[in-house]
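Hey, quick one: can you model this chain's 3D structure?
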Amino acid sequence: MLIAPSYRLLGRGRLSVMFANESTDFWKVYEWGMKHGNGTPEAREALRKRLEDMGDIDERGQTEHLSLSSMRRFVVMEGDAATHNFHIAQPDLDRKRGEMGARRSF
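Sure thing. Here's the predicted structure for all 106 residues.
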Protein backbone atom coordinates (compact mmCIF):
# COMPACT_ATOMS: atom_id res chain seq x y z
CA MET A 1 0.00 0.00 0.00
CA LEU A 2 1.59 3.24 -1.10
CA ILE A 3 1.21 6.39 0.95
CA ALA A 4 -0.27 9.52 -0.61
CA PRO A 5 2.35 12.25 -1.23
CA SER A 6 0.75 14.56 1.32
CA TYR A 7 1.34 11.96 4.06
CA ARG A 8 4.99 11.12 3.39
CA LEU A 9 6.58 10.93 6.82
CA LEU A 10 10.05 11.83 5.55
CA GLY A 11 8.82 14.54 3.20
CA ARG A 12 11.76 15.34 0.91
CA GLY A 13 14.26 13.59 3.21
CA ARG A 14 16.59 11.21 1.40
CA LEU A 15 15.69 7.53 1.50
CA SER A 16 17.63 4.61 0.04
CA VAL A 17 16.28 1.09 0.15
CA MET A 18 18.99 -1.48 -0.48
CA PHE A 19 17.35 -4.75 -1.53
CA ALA A 20 19.57 -7.80 -1.15
CA ASN A 21 17.02 -10.54 -1.97
CA GLU A 22 17.40 -12.81 1.01
CA SER A 23 15.99 -15.69 -1.01
CA THR A 24 19.51 -16.01 -2.46
CA ASP A 25 20.71 -17.09 0.99
CA PHE A 26 17.76 -19.42 1.50
CA TRP A 27 18.43 -21.10 -1.85
CA LYS A 28 21.95 -21.87 -0.60
CA VAL A 29 20.55 -23.42 2.57
CA TYR A 30 17.99 -25.38 0.53
CA GLU A 31 20.65 -26.71 -1.83
CA TRP A 32 22.89 -27.72 1.09
CA GLY A 33 19.97 -29.53 2.71
CA MET A 34 19.14 -31.34 -0.53
CA LYS A 35 22.76 -32.40 -0.97
CA HIS A 36 22.84 -33.79 2.58
CA GLY A 37 19.44 -35.49 2.42
CA ASN A 38 17.68 -33.24 4.92
CA GLY A 39 13.91 -32.90 5.09
CA THR A 40 11.01 -34.99 3.92
CA PRO A 41 10.10 -34.95 0.24
CA GLU A 42 7.00 -32.91 1.13
CA ALA A 43 9.00 -30.35 3.13
CA ARG A 44 11.57 -30.04 0.35
CA GLU A 45 8.86 -29.41 -2.24
CA ALA A 46 7.05 -26.89 -0.04
CA LEU A 47 10.26 -24.92 0.53
CA ARG A 48 11.21 -25.05 -3.16
CA LYS A 49 7.81 -23.63 -4.11
CA ARG A 50 8.10 -20.86 -1.51
CA LEU A 51 11.56 -19.90 -2.70
CA GLU A 52 10.42 -19.59 -6.32
CA ASP A 53 8.50 -16.37 -5.65
CA MET A 54 10.07 -15.24 -2.38
CA GLY A 55 12.35 -12.67 -4.06
CA ASP A 56 9.49 -11.03 -5.95
CA ILE A 57 7.26 -10.89 -2.87
CA ASP A 58 10.04 -9.44 -0.72
CA GLU A 59 10.98 -6.88 -3.37
CA ARG A 60 7.40 -5.64 -3.60
CA GLY A 61 7.32 -5.27 0.18
CA GLN A 62 10.59 -3.34 0.24
CA THR A 63 9.51 -0.96 -2.52
CA GLU A 64 6.56 0.08 -0.35
CA HIS A 65 9.05 1.83 1.94
CA LEU A 66 9.77 4.24 -0.90
CA SER A 67 6.43 5.93 -0.37
CA LEU A 68 7.82 7.49 2.83
CA SER A 69 9.79 10.10 0.88
CA SER A 70 9.72 11.93 -2.43
CA MET A 71 13.57 11.81 -2.52
CA ARG A 72 14.10 8.09 -2.84
CA ARG A 73 15.97 5.35 -4.64
CA PHE A 74 15.89 1.58 -4.75
CA VAL A 75 19.16 -0.33 -5.08
CA VAL A 76 19.21 -4.02 -5.99
CA MET A 77 22.31 -5.66 -4.58
CA GLU A 78 24.18 -7.88 -7.04
CA GLY A 79 27.01 -10.40 -7.08
CA ASP A 80 28.63 -11.05 -3.70
CA ALA A 81 26.47 -8.31 -2.21
CA ALA A 82 23.27 -10.25 -3.01
CA THR A 83 22.98 -11.48 0.57
CA HIS A 84 20.70 -10.19 3.29
CA ASN A 85 23.81 -9.70 5.44
CA PHE A 86 25.71 -7.61 2.88
CA HIS A 87 26.43 -4.97 5.51
CA ILE A 88 28.33 -7.63 7.51
CA ALA A 89 29.81 -9.60 4.61
CA GLN A 90 31.01 -6.49 2.76
CA PRO A 91 30.79 -3.43 5.02
CA ASP A 92 32.41 -1.10 2.47
CA LEU A 93 29.53 -1.49 0.02
CA ASP A 94 27.36 1.09 1.73
CA ARG A 95 30.04 3.68 0.98
CA LYS A 96 30.64 2.58 -2.60
CA ARG A 97 27.14 3.35 -3.81
CA GLY A 98 28.06 3.23 -7.46
CA GLU A 99 29.37 -0.32 -7.10
CA MET A 100 26.55 -1.80 -5.06
CA GLY A 101 24.10 -2.77 -7.71
CA ALA A 102 21.49 -1.60 -10.12
CA ARG A 103 19.66 1.55 -9.06
CA ARG A 104 16.04 2.23 -9.74
CA SER A 105 14.49 5.59 -9.04
CA PHE A 106 10.78 5.92 -8.37
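One thing worth noting: Residues 15-104 form one domain.
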